[in-house]
Amino acid sequence: MTTYFSDRSFRFLRALARRNERAWFHAHKADYEAHVREPFRRLLSDLHPDVLAVSPHFRADPKPVGGSLFRIHRDTRFANDKSPYKTWQGARLFHERSRETAAPSWYLHLEPGDCFVAAGIWHPESPVLRRIRQFVVDNPAGWKTAAHAPAFRRRYRLGSQEMLVRPPRGFPADFEFIEDLRRRNFIALRSIDDATMAGPRLRQVLARDLRATAPFMDYLCAALDLEF
Hints:
By secondary structure, the chain is of the alpha+beta class. The protein contains eight helices and six strands; from the N terminus they run αααββββαααββαα. It has a single domain (7-69, 84-223), classed as BirA Bifunctional Protein, domain 2 (2-Layer Sandwich), CATH 3.30.930.
């Protein structure tokens, strides 16, 4: 079995959190490449067959530019926090049509003490969000299976950030999943401990997560008229 990340991966990210400066980063860029970026690219390359086994329409792309890996540089143009770098590394396993339309994705997050895997759609625009909500109302049995199956909920939690204060207008107040319609983000996620992220079974663990969250992703794709 292959390992990807190590204690040195977490050590670099912790140090970056303490010294989030361009001069420090450039002086330690070789450590970033060796212990964070390149291991993540290897993981993406190895995960690609596992992604295709779940859905032929999603990609784990290890390309250094334009692939699955997010840049570690922060966009500080409109932010009060001008720190130049993120203190984590993330990657998304994206739908083949994601450049042309809103689509769900899987997301992998590497951060000391806060690693996780997620599936779903984050911050969709209002028309997209309304389509998903309406689809849930029109297909409640499928939503119950995809998002509320006992085995699924034992392993994954539905993201609860940025919930509306009250259910959106225009939907029946007595709907079984009315609280789910308050969601701004339709995501399911699971924390992963650092030891697992740095261990030899990481790919197998993530492949299991891909399979387990496939019905949830399939449902969201159906809501948005996307192939799964």
